[in-house]
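#random but structural
TW: two for the price of one
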Amino acid sequence: MRVVYRGLAVVAAVVAAAVAVIVVLPSGPDEVAAGPVTAPPAVPSPSGPAPAAAVPTPSPEPSTTEEPSTTEEQGATEEQGATEEQGAPSPSGSLAPGYTAMEALYADPRVPRLTGGVKRMSLSSPGKQVVTDKRSGLVVPRLGRPWKAYGAAPFSTRQVLPRQRGTTLRGTVVSCPLPIMEQESPRDTALLAARWTLNHHPKGSKITWLASQQVKGGWALVYRVKYGKKTSRAAVVVIDGGMSKPGLVFVTVPDSQHKQWRDIGRVVSGVRVLG
C-alpha cells in the first residue's frame, strides 16, 4: 500500500506541474486575452414591471395666436406710419368660443350700434383718373396732388398724403381683398371691416358713425375715429368685384390734414367693379 500511495503522489505531482505550465505560458502574439465572462442578466418575469424606456420629449410647438393685422400694413393706418411700415393685412382676431363675428362686434365698446338715425352722405364726383386693383376686381379713384402713389405691398394699391413734422399720421387710401370673414349681409361685412380698421389707428381709438349707405355691389360706411384729443375721418367700402372674396377700400385722414377730408367722399363715390 505504501508503494501505491507513493505512486499516486508522483502522478499528482506530475499533473500539478503540467497545469502550472499551462497557466504561466504567455499568450502568443495573435491571441487576445479574454476578459471575465459575465452571466447574462436575468430575464424579467412577464408579470414584473418592464424596464423604463427613454422617450424623447417633444419640443413645444410655436404659438399660432393670431395678431390683429397691421395694415399699413396695418397700413392704411394712421398710427406709426400708418401707411407704410406695418404688416400685411390679416384676418380679424380669433373669437371667444361660442361667439359669432357679429356678436363679438356688438360686444366691442369701441364700435357703437349702427342705427337707422345714421343717414346717407352726399357724394362728390370721383373724377376720371383711377387706379386698377386686379386682385380685388375693383377700381379706385386716383386722387390728385398732394396725394401720391406709394409702394402698395402687401396691399393691392395705396395712395398717401405727405408726412408732416411732429407726427407719423397721414392720410392713406388702400385697397385689397377683404381681410376678414364675409357676412351674409354686405352691411354687416362693412361693419366688421370698419372694426378691423381700428387696428390701423392709434391705440384707444373709438368710432362714431357719420354715414351708412348701399353702393352698387356692396356697402359703404363713413365714420369718425377719436383717439385722445385727436380725430381722423375714415371710410370703408366693401364691394363684390367678382373674385373669390369681395374687395375692400379703406381711406383715413387725420385732423392735421383735414383739408383732404373732402377726398373721402370722392373715394366712396368712385369705387366700382373693374370692367
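TW: number two ↓
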Amino acid sequence: MADDQLSEVFDLVEVRGVVSGGFAVQGPWASRAAIEGLKFFAMVSGRARLSTDGLDEPLQLEAGDVAVLNDRTWLTAEGGSGDGPPREVTPEADFTSIHLLGAHGAGADVVVGGHVDLNPAGRALLLQALPPVAHVRGSGTAAANLRGSLYRLVGELTEYRIGSAFAVRQHGQLLLLEVLRAYVGQAEPPPGWLRLLADERLRPALGLMHAEPGRRWGLQELARAAAMSRTTFAERFRSVSGVPPLTYLNRWRMLLAQRALRDDDVRVGSLAFDLGYASESAFSTAFKREVGESPLRYRHRLRD
C-alpha cells in the first residue's frame, strides 16, 4: 500500500512481538518480576492493578487493556477478590496448558505477557517513541481490532489446533501493531517517529522523503507538499518529531543504510550515491556519526 510508513519502519527495525508467558488464576493473586527492554502486559479477562518504576500510583487494568512498559526495571501486578492472602503466580513458560484452557471464560483473571524484539536501531527508535508506561484501553470502538487480536491470540493458545505455534507468532505481531494503533488513537505519544507517522498534515511531506530518500529535498518543497508555509512546516515538524525535517531525513537514510549493509552486498560507494551523498567519504562520516562505527565495520561485525 502507498504511503504506509509504519509498515516501512516495522520492516526496517525488524519489530517482532513475542508472546512469552501468561497465567489464569481465581481468587486473590500477585505477580512480581524484574524486567528490562520493552514488555507488554495484556489483561484478557478480569482486572488487575499494575505497578512499576515511574508510576506514581498503580495502573488499573480492565479486560482488554494492554500496558506497554518501556525500559522499566520491575513489575508488580495484583488482582482477584476474596478472603485470604494473595497467591503468588508467575507466567508459565508453557502456558498453552489445560489450566489456562479451563480457566479462560470461567471467571478467572487471565493475563498474557510478552516482549518486543527489535534490532539495535529499532530499540532506540521505539524506546524514544513511547512513554515509560503506555496504557492502551480495550474499551471503546477505537480498540475493537485490539480486542479481536487479543482474543484470537488466546484462542490459538488454548485450542490446540494444527499450526498453533505459527499462528501465535503471527498474532503476537498483529497484537503489537494493534496496540500501537490504539495507543496513537487514545493518547498523544511523545515527540518522535510514532507521533510523526500519525500526523495527517505532515504525512504528504513524509511520504516524499520515504519515497525518494536520496533526493536533495528542500524545506520549501516539503512545506508545499504539506500545504504550509516554510516556517510553519519546520516548526510543526520539529514539535511532532523532536527533530528538524532534514535531520529526520538523514536518520531515515541511516536506517536504510543499515538494512542494506546488513542484508545486501551493495558497494558502499553505490549506497552512498543512492542515498543522496556526494561522496563515499561524506556518507561514511554521516554513518559513523549516527551509528558509532564505519559502514564496513558495521557490515563485518554483523556478518561475522
